[in-house]
């Protein structure tokens, strides 16, 4: 028995290939700001961090 690390999984490579080909629409800034406000009110630091970074990416025009 030989040890190969990491083990290649065909579904993982297929998922990564399809992700690279797909274009995801960016949400609007008002929707992201609303998500940021909701996360702050819920004291969800992780959600607030994600929403804040998404606002900056959309405002700068960076595609995903």
In brief, what are we looking at here?
The protein has 64 residues and is mainly alpha-helical. Helix content is 64%, strand content 0%.
Tell me what you see in this structure.
By secondary structure, the protein is mainly α. The protein has 3 helices and no strands. The longest helix has 16 residues, at 45-60. The chain is elongated, with a radius of gyration of 18 Å. The chain starts with 9 loop residues before the first helix and ends with a helix.
How many strands, which pairing sense, and closed or not: the largest β-sheet? none
Q: What structural class do you assign from the helix and strand content?
A: mainly alpha
Provide a count of the helices.
3
What Rg do the Cα atoms give? 18 Å
Mean pLDDT: 82
Strand element count: 0
User: What gross morphology would you assign?
Assistant: elongated
Amount of helix: 55-70%
N-to-C SSE string, H for helix and E for strand: HHH
Distance between the termini: 41 Å
Quote the beta fraction.
under 5%
Low-confidence blocks of residues = none
């Amino acid at each position: 028995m030989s040890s190969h690390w990491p083990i290649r999984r065909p579904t993982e490579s297929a998922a990564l290939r399809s992700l690279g080909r797909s274009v995801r629409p960016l949400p609007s800034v008002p929707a992201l700001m609303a998500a940021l406000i909701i996360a702050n009110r819920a004291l969800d630091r992780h959600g607030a961090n994600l929403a804040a970074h998404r606002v900056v990416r959309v405002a700068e025009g960076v595609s995903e």
